[in-house]
Amino acid sequence: MEQSFWLQKWQKNEIGFHNPEAHALLVKHFPQLGLQPGARLFLPLCGKTLDIRWLLEQGYRVAGAELSETAIQQLFAELALTPQVAEQGELKRYSAENLDVFVGDMFQLQREALGSVDAIYDRAALVALPENMRVDYAAHLQQITGSASQLLISFDYDQNLQPGPPFCVSDEEIQRLYSGAYQLQLVDAVEVPGGLKGKVTALEKVWLLQANR
Ligand SMILES: C[S@@+](CC[C@H](N)C(=O)[O-])C[C@H]1O[C@@H](n2cnc3c(N)ncnc32)[C@H](O)[C@@H]1O
User: Fold this and answer.
1) To 5 degrees, how large is the angle CA 149–CA 153–CA 157?
2) Would you give the DSSP letter of residue 153?
3) Which of 21, 23, 43, 45 is the pocket-test mutation for ligand 1 (most atoms within 8 Å of CB)?
4) Residue 92 and residue 145: Cα distance in Å, rounded?
5) Is there a smaller number of Cβ atoms within 10 Å at the N or the C end of the chain?
6) Which residues form a coiled coil (predicted)?
7) What is the Å distance from ligand 1's center to 32 Cα?
8) Band of the pLDDT at 2, cuts 50, 70, 90?
């Protein structure tokens, strides 16, 4: 997906992917990450998800990466937080207590700038990217986080019936992308109520990825 595709979506407020509350599968499966209070989570391609609010309310620290500055201005406004904004190389960093969001292309985010991460939560990030970007995405994500554990939510459906995003990412592809560094466990699979975009039967799958150490 071109960056202009996403920037236009935010400009036109066509954000059907944005949930009005924390994701039920995050709330259900988050404890399986086994994190200590105050642990720091990284949310790649975070948008203005209310999952950030939920994680902050649970006492965790959050880092995000998002292309659209509009999204992040809305995120901070909706959290009633006033950000400190600083240039960080090619990116901007929006910060408030326990929250840092890097605004710009996630592929430009470096490990030193991101800082230490205890776990990754990927909802609608891997599946937002076309197949030809997913290998680079998975490698970069592992590189900048030191292969931190992940809770990953994917979509599984017949890609012939509907184009992405969100894309179908098969179990085999997830294994290919991540089995070099992680033990993978499929912990849940639930049918999307009413079908994906109200049309196509789809499963939302929850994966727990724990680093091989
Ligand atoms: C499908 S949305 C998901 C947002 C969020 N994870 C959620 O669950 O609401 C994908 C997001 O990725 C952002 N994005 C796309 N390409 C990106 C990139 N290269 N770097 C950072 N963010 C990107 C888009 O602007 C969009 O907000």
Assistant:
1) 145
2) E
3) 45
4) 19
5) C
6) none
7) 24
8) confident
Query: The tokens of 196 are what?
Result: 């994906």
Mutate to test the pocket of ligand 1, among 3, 66, 132 (most ligand atoms within 8 A of CB): 66
Element housing 211 (H / E): strand 203-211
Q: How far is CA 54 from CA 49, 60, 62, 172, in A?
A: 9, 9, 10, 31
Q: How many CB atoms lie within 10 A of CB 32?
A: 15
Q: pLDDT for 143-168, tens place per residue?
A: 999 999 999 999 999 999 999 999 99
Instruction: Report residue 30 as tokens.
Output: 């988050």
CATH number of 175's domain:
3.40.50.150
Give me 66's structure tokens. Answer: 């998002």
The answer on pLDDT for 47 being more than 80 is: yes
Tokens 């890097």 belong to which residue? Answer: 102
Q: Are 44 and 62 in contact (CB under 8 A)?
A: no
Q: What residues does ligand 1 touch, defined as CB less than 6 Å away?
A: 6, 17-18, 45-47, 49, 65-68, 71, 105-107, 123-125, 128, 165
Alpha carbon distance 29, 8 (integer Å) = 33
User: Residue 138 is encoded by which pair of tokens?
Assistant: 């998975």
What's the gap between Cα 43 and its chain centre?
4
Output the pLDDT for position 7: 97
Structure tokens at 78: 């909706």
Residue 203, domain extent: 3-211
Q: Give the chain's domain count.
A: 1
